Amino acid sequence: MKSMEKYMKMLRLEPYRDRTEIPVFPMLVATYGALGDVSQKDIMNSQEKWLESVENTIKKIGRPDVSMAICPADTVFSMSLPVRLPGRELADDALYQFVEKPYFEDEQEYANIMKMGWQNWYGNYMMNIQVPPFSSPAQLGQRFGLLGERVGKVIGFMMSKGIVPCFEAACMPIYDMLSMIRSMADFTCDFYEDPGPIMDIIRTFQPAEDENNIRMMKANHGTRIAIFAMRSSASFVSPDMFREYIWPELKASILRYHEAGLTSVIHADGNWLPMLPSFTELPKGCCHIELDGTTDIFKAYEILQGSQSIRGDVPSTLFAFGTPEEVSQYCEKLIQMGMRGGFMLSSGCEVPLNAKVECVKAMMDSVRTA
Fold it and tell me: How many CB atoms are closer than 10 A to CB 310?
């Protein structure tokens, strides 16, 4: 089967006839540089150098069925946080570092967001955190335009290799974005003490954000949109607060995308196990959920099997410190679990920079022979 056929069969939750039908996805962005013998500084400063590292890596580990379709520079930009970069604040081969600190000190800023509107407020924020800061909204617009142009180039490159882009565009719910901008500790206190102002922002502006994303996806003929709901897990919020406040808005976004013919790819960092039963309320197959190892993937599969597809979750520790045999043994457990369908073999979030090539290859090879 071709990679796209595998991907679509996985989304349709169809049982696999043998393991070679299971799509394999080592999640790589910055790690393409480490595995492909190109410095982190170079892949951050040049998309061409990053694509060179992708080519080099594929020669070593084999061709994955699925890959990320965004280069490191656009990854760090789109995460919307201040960042330390290799070759700038860090050593040339260091991994970039996000800097999370309160952008505003007073919870009264939520009223200012309501007054300005989310897009205007967020635009000012993004201009201010760039190094050096952007001087005009036009400059920010040009940067977003460059992001779109480069994502399109990467998608074309991946598809020319027979590799499926995991998604064509990505977004972050306003709830999760505010958590990072305000900083986790302060935002959690704000939300616990008085969720009202935060929920007013989300309920007022999230529908328009979703509609903008739908228009963009339709214009570019995309079918899969990632939702980076990284602060909505039980690692950050109680299941009760999730059900009362977060899930209704996240569910509404997923349903908007579904009604527009889009599949939501949920980036589910942290412990989502208490939250996963909620996803069975959604239309069958409208989501694909990626787990990073904090959630017990075997329990997750039993909760979601027949409802939504999942992927994961070979741990970073196995890639970095394990042996190829240990990786193969863990993959075998995942494969036996996932043969009923709706499963993609993948790493638990991104493969680490210090991963052994032979361990990544062991994951790839585990689904290559029946």
Answer: 29
- Token readout for 333 is 């457990």
Q: pLDDT per residue over 116-136, tens digit each?
A: 999 999 999 999 999 999 999
* Model confidence band, residue 328 (pLDDT cutoffs 50, 70, 90): very high
Q: Which residues pair with 309 in a beta bridge?
A: 288
Label residue 123 exposed, middle or buried (CB < 10 Å: 0-12, 13-18, 19+).
Answer: middle
Tokens, residue 22: 């299971």
Cβ-contact 190, 181 below 8 angstroms: no
Prediction pTM value: 0.94
- Residues 253, 205: Cα–Cα separation, whole Å: 12
* Angle, vertex CA 219, rays to CA 215 and CA 221, nearest 5: 110
3-state helix, strand, coil in the chain (%, to 5): 55, 10, 35
What are the residues whose beta carbons fall under 8 Å from the beta carbon of 15, sequence distance 6 or more? Answer: 339, 340, 341
Identity of the amino acid at 315: P
d(CA 277, CA 220): 33
Cα(361)–Cα(62) distance, integer angstroms: 7
Contact 139, 220 (CB under 8 A): no
pLDDT in tens, 300-310: 999 998 899 99
Helices (H) and strands (E) in the chain, counts: 17, 11
Task: Residue 312: name the closest of 283, 280, 279, 346 by CA.
Answer: 346
Please tell me what DSSP assigns to residue 263: E
What is the C-alpha to C-alpha distance for residues 243 and 202, in angstroms, rounded to an integer? 15
Instruction: Report the SS3 class of residue 287.
Output: strand
Spatial distance between the Cα atoms of 61 and 274, rounded to a whole number of angstroms: 35
Contact 112, 121 (CB under 8 A): yes
- The answer to whether the CB of 28 falls within 8 A of the CB of 57 is yes
